[in-house]
Amino acid sequence: MLHTVNKSPFERNTLEACLKRAVPGAAILLIEDAVYAALAGTTLADAMTSAAQRFEVSVLGPDLAARGLENAALVEGVTVVDYGGFVDLAAAKGSVQAWL
Amino acid sequence: MLHTVNKSPFERNTLEACLKRAVPGAAILLIEDAVYAALAGTTLADAMTSAAQRFEVSVLGPDLAARGLENAALVEGVTVVDYGGFVDLAAAKGSVQAWL
Amino acid sequence: MKFAILVNEGPFNHQAVDTAYQFARAALARGHEVLRVFFYYDGVHNAHRHSAPQADERNIVARWSKLAEEHGVDLAVCVAAGLRRGVTEAVIAPGFRITGLGQLIEAGIDADRTMVFGD
Amino acid sequence: MKFAILVNEGPFNHQAVDTAYQFARAALARGHEVLRVFFYYDGVHNAHRHSAPQADERNIVARWSKLAEEHGVDLAVCVAAGLRRGVTEAVIAPGFRITGLGQLIEAGIDADRTMVFGD
Amino acid sequence: MNEQDTDGTVTKRFMIVNRKAPHGTVYALEVLEMVLISAMFDQDVHVAFLDDGVWQLRRGQMPGALEMKDFSKTYRALEGYGVEKIYVEGESLAERGLSEQDLVIPVEVIARADMARLMDGMDVVLTA
Amino acid sequence: MNEQDTDGTVTKRFMIVNRKAPHGTVYALEVLEMVLISAMFDQDVHVAFLDDGVWQLRRGQMPGALEMKDFSKTYRALEGYGVEKIYVEGESLAERGLSEQDLVIPVEVIARADMARLMDGMDVVLTA
To answer: Fewer CB atoms near the end CB (10 Å): N or C, chain E?
Structure first.
């Protein structure tokens, strides 16, 4: 299953809610304001680094670029994809759950 | 100053954001989905009990009733007001800040 | 005392709109004045005259219109926010008017208290 | 592969709408099919033909209409959610149609993947 | 994942996920309309309540206090519509000081780990 | 709180509070329109950035990647409009791994306790 999360982890509980229910090895894609979760150097980066070891975590590149984070350091283990990559993930992972 | 908070503290950071910036003795009114913060017996009740000692905390009665919480136990130090009481608080406290 | 009210969200999706309305009613009942309700962001959707909720649901748009009719409350819809969202003169309900964002700041200056209701 | 897309929010206020659109475009570019985009909750506001954003802004409503025209994507607006919010036949843009919520479930059955975009 | 019935029709596992509190936003109400419609399609429909979504099932709601409709009664009608697979996450209840006795309908309370496995097996997940 | 000028006009302390990230929602963009308008009224206007609002000032934003408008340039124009009281909360920056060098404009970074006191002295607080 592919899980999508779209809100900043500083503001909402959706990323946490997703991490609590995703099964090991599941794919998680961070989109929109959730891309801040992928950044190194924040107070949440350690939790994300640990999550990236249990799950296949990726982040949407255009959302990083829009927010001035195209060249920002990301936590280890996170892959950047574009909208085509988002489509590929959705196609590859069987089904999709949006955490809203 | 009167601070209003309208989101569930289980879902969003607005109550926490408000508690971090309200000055001691400020009034805080919990409305809409924020009324869950006033309940005794939740994992957040201790934090709210402590907040109610530093601030003048009240909760909107109609929002409790709508959610089936009219007779629920509240954390110590929280007062229930109706819409008229909300207006009185806004009038009495000089200015108002909504934490959205 | 004079109140100004800013509504940031549209009807039905967010209770913010209901709270703003109940607050306005309660303020009037207490003998206060509600100078203006200003609708910004998705708040402009409060003005849709085509809104037709089910018979057993509250009619939010009609309720605002009635507040304007009965108490002369000024229901001001931001022109720029409205244009983006398709809320123009062509679709607004009685009692609402389309105006500039400056009227929000003016209301903040003229009122004793400015209340904000949003998401 | 066949995709169904559910849009929960209105345009401009939430990027969810933009992501849904970019996803649909990318899926088509990959050679997939987009069976239906279903607009529910405040998502019904995507269909407003009066929407007129500034010249330097993206026109979200027109962009959906173009997607329908160029790729035959079915833009389905929930009748009940629309009625509440003033989105009726009278105001919908080209390419959109008003229909029942059952069409969302049908799309979920017929599509290989159902995507949800919201707040 | 989806099963092909003997008559060739497809039955999919749908899950409608409720994570939001009622009344503060419209999602709980309009999701319920989605649940009722989904019951008409002969699919394998699951309804899940977790996080603040469990508040939707709280007994004694009186949204009339807000001039809003009391749709919590509709949950009691779900069984009559053939929607029987209703799951509530135990941890979400406990965090909020709630127990099964506080809810409007009898439900199957499952552990978070079981909710996770259940979700993972779905074909279509509708959230709001 | 508000001051009466010698000519009898009222000057109020306005604060426009930014707590939300840009692009994910429209608030940052439409708040900026509010800030520009407020500058035309000869009031004592303050603009505050805290929590996720500090991301609005992040350098190098390219919302063209989302077909969206780059309004981050407008922050640079604020001074020209007479909006000079711009405050950013230091703790909010630090939690997000940001420093002043990451921002599009020079700002006054203040501590959380000072932000609290500043807010407490306002007459009108506009949030989104």
So the answer is: N
